[in-house]
Amino acid sequence: xxxxxxxxxxxxxxxxxxxxxxxxxxxxxxxxxxxxxxxxxxxxxxxxxxxxxxxxxxxxxxxxxxxxxxxxxxxxxxxxxxxxxxxxxxxxxxxxxxxxxxxxxxxxxxxxxxxxxxxxxxxxxxxxxxxxxxxxxxxxxxxxxxxxxxxxxxxxxxxxxxxxxxxxxxxxxxxxxxxxxxxxxxxxxxxxxxxxxxxxxxxxxxxxxxxxxxxxxxxxxxxxxxxxxxxxxxxxxxxxxxxxxxxxxxxxxxxxxxxxxxxxxxxxxxxxxxxxxxxxxxxxxxxxxxxxxxxxxxxxxxxxxxxxxxxxxxxxxxx
Length: 319
Prior knowledge:
Number of strands: 11
CATH superfamily of the largest domain: Vaccinia Virus protein VP39
Helix content: 25-40%
CATH topology of the largest domain: Rossmann fold
CATH architecture of the largest domain: 3-Layer(aba) Sandwich
Number of helices: 8
Shape: globular
Radius of gyration: 20 Å
Largest sheet: 7 strands, mixed
Number of domains: 2
């Protein structure tokens, strides 16, 4: 029996809220293929340059978004994310980004379960998770910045969840998603491809900005957002899969330290991480020694293969 259109469309989506998320291969949509009678005389190794994946999740209450052309309410979001098939690392969605996005959906729905009820620091972990939820999804202006955004899936997930949970007045803050100049075209493309989710409140859309960790200064735009528009700086710094290049750690930690200093109250730092090399964990020690940021493991998410994606929350230690 033929499947219904809705069933067919669901087969091409990735449910970030599903319990089995990460345990089965992800579906993918290719870009349109053009058929022509003309004989191609160029290189014979041309290939599909872009693919698209659709990530869905239920929107949390209390302020589900209005449907675009009806009086109904949107109860489920669908985020379209384009990736490159090239070897450019900043133009792909990696396991950590998907796992962290899924964890954020659970966080917005108050479904986070700690690692173990027997953990000696269980109360501390719960307090960190509650503080992070407030930093991201409280019905108040929040200023959130993502580092090493790549395709932007994490920032789009945060912005969509904030739009569902927050009133117009609470959306005075910003979600800034950053990466190197080479990532900007695809990052901006993905933001604008999802503009339909923010038609009734364009200010809730993520804003793409260049942030090179090797730069001596934080760009003016980011400083203006932190100091002039919100007056309180960043409430959260978000990162996924930023630990793959150990040589970049000093620059990353310096950038974190500078962003923290732009804030009236030290922001929480959320990190999605999947281990490739044990040496990557030197980032935790460097962040603590240089920037005074202490990371705590607060959860895990299944990925396509072991090990799982680890969810860490960092906080600035008092002097």
